[in-house]
Design goal:
This protein is about 40% helix and about 20% strand. It is of the alpha/beta class. It has two domains: about 90 residues, Spore Coat Polysaccharide Biosynthesis Protein SpsA, Chain A (Alpha-Beta Complex); about 160 residues, no CATH class. The longest helix has 28 residues. The protein is globular.
Length: about 270
């Protein structure tokens, strides 16, 4: 039985999905299964996944009967997971080869830990790096997470039994954020590895692109976890204060990146 079940939803991801899968197969910790769920893609995504599954038995190809969205797709994969831990990777992001190894080492040192994440590096659609690094804090409490979401979904590892108690909500909100908030209500903190083991691809076509749309999704997220209308609105305003600062740092780091640079430099998040 694999210790880690890696969950990867994929929809029209033919451009990036093979690189994402190969970044999992390159892990220095080999005891995992990779559950890749095709959400009824209209391109070659399913074909690519199936080819890689034939080459490595740790890749498990799953397919939704109809297009269901990222939240339902992740929940389906979680229901099929056999590992003690679930880790997430989106089909356009990448992991560093020692991601699972270092995260598990951290969790072994914290027997109370049920949720962990890592720092993040950033690349653009063409794979060109930004110099900005979003740092990971050693511990993230519920109150800290309420102010801003420090946990990039593709960096998260969580106990399987815990994530099954708090499945991700619908796609009209930040479904992963609501799950982390609910989990941190019942545990002391999330633990962080302060190394950019996740390489996050920034895309203008992401689900929450556009500030108005993102604000609405965030508002629904706070309402989903039980906050009233006024409190949810105030939390959205506070969240966006931090979000604007982060976006500015990322934008500046792209402008400052020297030509031909291969690796991002560390900078406070």
């Amino acid at each position: 039985m694999p210790l880690v079940s890696v969950v990867m939803p994929a929809y029209n991801a033919e451009k990036y999905v093979e690189a994402a899968i190969r970044s999992v197969l390159a892990q220095t910790f080999p005891e995992f299964e990779l559950l890749v769920v095709d959400d009824c893609s209209r391109d070659r995504t399913a074909e690519i996944i199936q080819r890689l599954a034939r080459q490595d038995s740790r890749v498990v190809f799953l397919q939704n009967p109809k297009n269901s969205g990222v939240a339902a797709t992740r929940n389906y994969a979680i229901s099929q997971a056999k590992g003690e831990w679930v880790a997430f990777l989106d089909s356009d992001d990448l992991w560093r080869a020692d991601k699972l190894e270092k995260q598990l080492a951290l969790l072994r040192g914290h027997p109370d830990g049920v949720l962990a994440y890592t720092a993040s590096a950033f690349i653009d659609q063409d794979g060109k790096p930004y110099s900005y690094i979003m740092e990971a804090q050693p511990e993230v409490s519920y109150q800290t997470l309420l102010r801003r979401n420090l946990l990039s979904c593709s960096s998260v590892m969580v106990k399987t039994e815990v994530i099954r108690r708090y499945p991700m909500g619908h796609d009209g909100m930040h479904e992963d954020y609501t799950t982390w908030l609910q989990i941190l209500r019942e545990t002391r903190c999330a633990y962080g590895v302060n190394e950019p083991l996740l390489i996050y691809r920034l895309s203008p076509n992401s689900k929450s692109s556009g500030r108005v749309k993102s604000a609405k999704m965030l508002y629904r997220s706070y309402r989903y976890v039980g906050y009233g209308c006024m409190t949810a609105a105030c939390l959205v305003f506070r969240y966006f204060f931090y979000s604007v600062r982060k976006r500015r740092k990322i934008a500046v780091s792209k402008q400052d990146m020297p030509s031909g640079a291969e690796a991002p430099t560390r900078e406070e998040g």
